[in-house]
Amino acid sequence: MLILGIESSCDETAASVVKDCTELKSSVIASQALEHRQYGGVVPELASRRHCENIYFTVEKAMTEANVTFSELDGIAVTYTPGLIGALLVGVNFAKGLAFAAGKPLIPVHHITGHIAANYLAHPELKPPYLCLVVSGGHTMLTEVKTYTEFQILGTTRDDAAGECFDKCARVLGYPYPGGVEIDKAAKKGNNRKYSLPEPKVNGSALDFSFSGLKTAVINIVHHAQQTGEVIDRESMAASLQRAVSEILTERTRLAAQQTGYRTIALAGGVSANSGLRESMAEMCRKENFQLYMPPLSLCGDNAAMIACQGSYEFLAGRTADESLNAYASKTLIGEMKTNSAS
User: Fold this and answer.
1) What are phi and psi of 77, to 5 degrees?
2) Are 2-116+300-316 and 128-297 the same fold in CATH?
3) CA gyration radius, the chain
4) For a disulfide at 157, which of 15, 178, 209, 264, Cβ 3.0-4.6 Å?
5) Which CATH superfamily is domain 128-297 in?
6) Minimal CA–CA distance to 13: which of 33, 43, 39, 40?
């Protein structure tokens, strides 16, 4: 089984071919990060235009590297939610046209399930059910992975996502976009106990997250220092922030595993590349005797390999769409798709 995956939810135009669910045949990514850096973040209109320019050549290169023809494909998978609506529409409409022209099934994939599936490419032995912590720029959630295509959200963020907290704090500290990467680099040079930061909790929801207060605390410390002429130790602030975020994520995951009884835990999403979080999760799992799976750094960020992988499982489950498939900026992970329809 060969599935072509297409990803365009934010600022990476990506295409990939995956064989038999977990065998990676090709993975091509056209990143816009350097272009958006001058604006301090992703500019949606610019991202959409670049997707239009890059998508044909990205798909063509992925097919060439995989050494397969469109006639050999079993289906075409595409991210249809969530993300920047203009960016998503480029990928969805290209995939719809390609599926129609090639006479192949169109497979809609939820971006978050794609991040979870990235683990299958690196760890084919990982099989549901298990507990997964998904952490990215726009999402932070604890998810029960019941099957390859069935999920249950146990806890989610009530405001900012962990990645958003990293990015916004990085900006106030003077680091360029993408901020999360810069925070990780700086944290390696700082004292992670120098600044005392809060651990926000959601009353009555032990597994939910809240990072808005943590972000505000960092911003207030930096602004106060600027007003009083103090010098902020940027590396130590980055290290303190990374420690606080990692401890919150790790502790919620430990609690969720304790409540559900799962002994297998996976980490997914762009922030899963953060070295502090990976170390914190690994240490917790060693202490609790949990089995931990993490995607390699190359599969943590947005890519089409994860979309092709998850698309393979969706295809096997009979979940395809017709030409009425639309893109959605936001759509719940639970119950978003029905067999043979995702419009």
Assistant:
1) -100, 145
2) yes
3) 20
4) 209
5) ATPase, nucleotide binding domain (3.30.420.40)
6) 33
Amino acid at 70: F
Q: How far is CA 277 from CA 21, 22, 126, in A?
A: 28, 25, 20
- For the chain, give every domain's residue range: 2-116+300-316, 128-297
Separation CA 79–CA 95 (nearest Å)? 9
Distance separating alpha carbons of residues 91 and 77, to the nearest angstrom? 10
**β-strands 291-293, 264-268: how paired?**
parallel
Local confidence pLDDT in tens for the 343 residues of the chain: 999 999 999 999 999 999 999 999 999 999 998 899 988 889 999 999 999 999 999 999 999 999 999 999 999 999 999 999 999 999 999 999 999 999 999 999 999 999 999 999 999 999 999 999 999 888 899 999 999 999 999 999 999 999 999 999 999 999 998 899 999 999 999 999 999 999 888 888 899 999 999 999 999 999 999 999 999 999 999 999 999 999 999 999 999 999 999 999 999 999 999 999 999 999 999 999 999 999 999 999 999 999 999 999 999 999 999 999 999 999 988 644 443 334 3
Q: Which fold has domain 2-116+300-316?
A: Nucleotidyltransferase; domain 5 (3.30.420)
Alpha-carbon gap, residue 12 to 14, rounded angstroms: 6
For the stretch 321-341, what's the b/e string if a residue is b when 16 or more beta carbons lie within 10 angstroms of its beta carbon?
A: beeebbbbeebebeebbeeee
